[in-house]
Amino acid sequence: MEDNKAHRKRQAGPKAEKKKKSGQKNPKAFAPNSGVRAERQARRNMDRGEKKLHVPMADRSQLEPPPIVVAVVGPPGTGKSTLIKSLVKRYTKHNLTEIHGPITVVASKHRRITFIECNNDINCMVDIGKVADLVLLLIDASYGFEMETFEFLNVLQTHGFPKVMGVLTHLDKFKDSKKLKKTKKRLKQRFWTEIYQGAKLFYLSGMINGKYLKNEILNLSRFISVMKFRPLVWRNTHPYMLCDRLEDLTDPEQIRVSPKQDRTVALYGYLRGTNLKSGAKVHIPGVGDYNMSSIKILADPCPIPDKQRKLLNEKHKLLFAPMSDVGGILYDPDGIYINVPGQFAKKEGEEQGYGERLVTNLQDAQETIEDKVNASSMRIFEDSELLKADDYDMDTDGEILEEESDDEDVSSDEEEEEEEEVDDGTGRVRRRVRAGEMRAIEPSEENVEYADSDSDLGFETEEEDDEEEQVQMREDGSLVWKSRILESAAERFLKNKRTTLADFIYKRTGFSMDDESEDETEEQEAGIFIKKVRKEKPKSLAMVDTCKMEFASAALDRWEDEDVLESLRSRFITRKEEEEEKDEDGDFEDLENPENNSKPKEEEEVLDVDEERAMNAKKKEMLKKKFDAQYDGTDEDEPTTYYEQVKEEMAKQQQINREEFEDVDPETRALVEGCRAGFYVRIVLKDMPCEFPDRFNPDYPVLLGGLLQSEEQFGFIQVRIKRHRWFKKTLKTNDPLVFSLGWRRFQTLPLFSMVNEATRNRMLKYTPEHMHCLATFYGPVTPPNTGFCCLQSVSNRTSAFRISATGVVLDNDKTTEVVKKLKLTGTPMKVFKNTAFIKDMFTSALEVAKFEGASIRTVSGIRGQVKKALSKPEGVFRAAFEDKILISDIVFLRAWYPVKPKRFYNPVTSLLLEEKSKWQGMRTTGQIRFEDGIKLVQKKDSVYKPIERKKRIFSKLNIPKSLQAKLPFATKPKQDQKKKKESQGVKAVVLEPEEKRVVSIIQAINTVKNEKERKRKEKVKQDREVHAKKMQSVQKMDAVMQKERSKEFFKQQGKKRAIEEAKEAKSRKKRK
Questions:
Q1: Residue whose C-alpha is closest to residue 75's, from 195, 173, 167, 197
Q2: What is the distance between the alpha carbons of residues 1000 and 991, in angstroms, rounded to a whole number?
Q3: Quick check: 821 and 870 in contact, CB under 8 A?
Q4: Burial readout 741-752 (b: 16 or more C-beta within 10 A, e: otherwise)
Q5: What is the pLDDT of residues 268-322, one digit of tens each?
């Protein structure tokens, strides 16, 4: 018997290569069984891919983006302040005692974060929901979800849903691990239902020293630092700013004289969104619309590190919180100084070293060193005149200017380090100073020339004799080498001086460039020094028309030579046109001898080897692209779909815009395109109400949103609206409703309607249940597809769900087309065959003329048309019907009456109140009656009355006999009428006297019998009433006795049970 050998797989050959290419064991085993099913699956996958696509938006992100806004939201007592303190401690090593307003920190090398706490006010929720990039939603796990959480989520859904992360707190209250696990799972599933499946949820298990655990905060901070954000539509088209501080610029004396006058207010913050141009109109939610007086770009108080660093140093972990308790804060128009108390802070009662005393004593200085130097004076000799510093020129305009050094070899560190921030080791951050300003104050050592004598500095005179090596003097005793020292110094200074256009415009130089001008300063001898008395002299016109230096007129004569100008002509565009004109005149290229057309060697450009290789590689790449486009049909770099094409065009346009303004200074660029997002700016607003700065509360965010030109107008807005399923009350037409639309919050009167028969908008009195409807109201014009939410009240007094409705804007118009049904009724006055005269529908012939041709109908369904009005009586008209109507019919006409919304717009001014949550707008009459306790006065005409209708008696259907004979048997009437017997007449009966007596006796007997029967019935009725009263008392006694018996029974049962339990207890003890 032969042994079976093990199968050896093919290592080479067609089979092995086929398996390697397929990537799986058996390709045929995984092939689709049905081609239809495979096609359906492929179509489904493509549909899923198309659903993921969204409308591409322009990328407006800047190279230095503004800090991302992280809003910490949650009901009171969930740990919002503690979480912000822990995150700030994690990022900056600072311990905050109080949280007020925005707090900006440097989180990483490329990202800054602004934390802001949202208090329990619906106005704050709405404002923060419009600007937050990331929301940390805090949930008390021991209590569960609260109403404020769902209200904020609904606000986010209407204003553009940002990134949301949940944070579960108070987990340390759970002692049972199983209950904790079930609670986490239940809250996570509910959180996923509201956000999306897989939304991130963090757990904060406990606290140590008033802070959350470090590992948990570290995990949360890492997620925040690396999170990416997709631009939202509204924020990508509007500029806005979250103000981090406010300053009242009004003169204090004016405020003292008139405290209620309008103020001038300056708002500071980072610009976000699009560019904000000077003079644009802005809206502050809770205050109103205002025009910007000015906008100024300031130095960034919390800058990103300018160098690429692996890790952030302590001095780069900056904290900017002007409204929180960070330390002493000093404001000025150009910057913000934050002083964190440290070893150089003034502390009374503590001993300090010599260096510390020097630093702290500088804080008490009332004058600067420059002021003290200018006020100083000195006397060289006893009999000389007193010299003062103000009488002498140290330099041009009293400034120390930077001299231009011939050595341009500057270290790379100084070039890269444009800004510098100083940290003294105590956490106190000083304002950065630019390198240019630093060099202007402290000249570099490289620019200082050292020499052994004045001659080495170029102060030689022609009269000096080098061979004799002796000092020559004039007749008056003065030294010869000092004769032209001032002129030589001025010439050398102007030769090496850098002058800019701004220096000439603002006249910052004290020297004239004109060599022929004479020195008009008067010299007075005062010892060895020369005292100068300045006189005003006109500036040279050449200085105004030049930026750096002035050329001598002799140097410009050579440009009058034609040969020199011809040598430069080829460098201009017009030179190319002249050459083309020459070619047209007859200068052709010699194609047979191309060597004759070659340029002279001196005109050919000599390229380096690297440049020539790069040029050849570029040519090869272009040829390859042409070849691929010709044979393959498409280029790899070209977009294959319309979606990719649109994205590529937007990216190209964005790159062109960036390259256009790349070399322009920020001030000029701001004048052209406005201040860009990411700048820290100062915006001044005039004519602000005095309540705004006086009642400013940093716990309530101040948002400044830019308005587009179309949004400054007002009109009628048509929206699609739906009452929220959790809002209990039904919304009524013309009841006041607060809308949060765009940046604004305002109260208006909506008019609800619904499209009827696709032709008209029919007014609705109430919103439908679980359905969308249309609403029209008066307000600011807003772009279509803008979401909004509605509230009936912005106060915190209600415990119910406050979001009453949500929707989206459909259209803006100056007019509206909303109608309501008008039903006119009338009755026939005369009826003819198909014509009738109708009355009680109109009151005059003019009204009839307005409705001529209108369709009418009766209750029975007969249709007709209004024809002409009759002369008499007034209001009666002739109508034609499709059949004869009855005189008892009711005729009605269905008409449509146009309804216009009321022009009511009331902005919510909650920031002007002392208590922000108590803003109240227009109230309904029902609310006023309820709050004031006023009873409703009913009108008699409004009371429903019982409707009394006379019963109509219809005559029997009478079918003629001729028609009955023609009818089939099934439809013939089957009820035979009974024939009446013919009456033969009434016969008179005459009684005999005996018969009369008998009849009278019988009548008397019947009368006595009836009377006895009546009395018997009354006696029986009385006996029954007495018996019923007796039985009622007996039943009451029985009930009392039964209650006593039941009490006694249960009492005995209780005693028996107690005895048995005692016996059982004794038996247990014996067993033990």
A1: 167
A2: 12
A3: no
A4: bbbbbbbbbbbb
A5: 999 999 989 888 899 999 999 999 999 998 888 888 877 666 566 666 678 888 8
Residue 865 burial (CB count, 10 A): 14
For residue range 751-806, what is the model confidence (pLDDT) as tens digits?
999 998 778 889 999 999 989 999 999 999 999 999 999 999 888 777 788 999 99
Longest dimension (CA), the chain: 201
Please give the pLDDT value at position 524: 41
Top pLDDT among 701 and 546 is at 701
Q: How confident is the model at residue 748 (pLDDT cuts 50, 70, 90)?
A: very high
**pLDDT by residue (tens digit) across 500-546?**
555 555 555 444 444 443 444 444 443 334 444 444 444 443 344 44
Q: How many of the other CB atoms lie within 10 Å of CB of 59?
A: 14
Residue type, 133: D
Quick one: which of 304, 316, 335, 232 has its CA closest to 67? Answer: 304
Full-prediction pTM beyond 0.70? no
DSSP state of 971: G
- Compute the distance between CA of residue 49 and CA of residue 46 in angstroms, rounded to an integer: 5
Residue with the bigger pLDDT between 462 and 885: it is: 885
pLDDT tens-digit map of 253-270 = 999 999 899 999 999 999
Residues 6+ apart with CB under 8 A from 868: 848, 852, 877, 878
Strands (E), 421-489: 433-434
How far apart are the C-alpha atoms of 471 and 447, rounded to whole Å? 31
Determine contact, residues 782/742, Cβ cutoff 8 Å. yes
**Residue 786 CA: distances (Å) to CA of 111, 708, 892:** 30, 14, 43
With b meaning 16 or more CB within 10 Å and e meaning fewer, what string describes 262-281? ebbbbbbbbbbbbbbbeebe
Q: Give CA–CA dist 256/260, Å, rounded.
A: 9
Any idea what DSSP says for residue 625?
Answer: H
Report d(CA 149, CA 169) in Å as an integer: 14
Lowest mean pLDDT among 140-154, 526-540, 859-873: 526-540
Tabulate helix, strand, coil % of the chain (nearest 5). 35, 20, 45
Phi, psi of 1064, deg, nearest 5: -65, -40
- Across 277-347, where does the E strand assignment appear? 281-284, 288-298, 319-320, 328-332, 335-339
The total number of residues shown for the chain amounts to 1072
Residue 622, token pair as written in the block: 């272009």
Helix (H) or strand (E) run with residue 856 in it: strand 855-858
Q: Is 140 exposed, middle or buried, given 0-12, 13-18 or 19+ CB atoms closer than 10 A?
A: buried
Q: CA 564 to CA 583: how far, in whole Å?
A: 24
How many other C-beta atoms are found inside a 10 Å radius of the C-beta of residue 651? 13
Query: Residue 501: phi, psi to the nearest 5?
Result: -65, -35
CB 790 within 8 A of CB 738: yes
Least confident range of 368-372, 541-545, 673-677, 970-974: 541-545
- By the 8 A CB rule, do 316 and 707 touch? no
- DSSP string for residues in 508-570: ---S-S-TTPPP--EEEEETTEEEEE----PPPHHHHT-SS----TGGGGGGG-HHHHHHHHT
Digit-coded pLDDT (tens) for 466-487 = 444 444 455 454 555 556 666 7
Instruction: Tell me if 289 sits within 8 A of 706, measured CB to CB.
Output: no
- Please answer whether residues 782 and 809 qualify as being in contact, where contact means their C-beta atoms are separated by less than 8 angstroms: yes
Residue range 416-430: average pLDDT?
39
The mean predicted confidence, pLDDT, of the chain is: 77
Nearest-angstrom CA–CA distance, 954 and 439: 115
- How high is the pLDDT of residue 449? 39
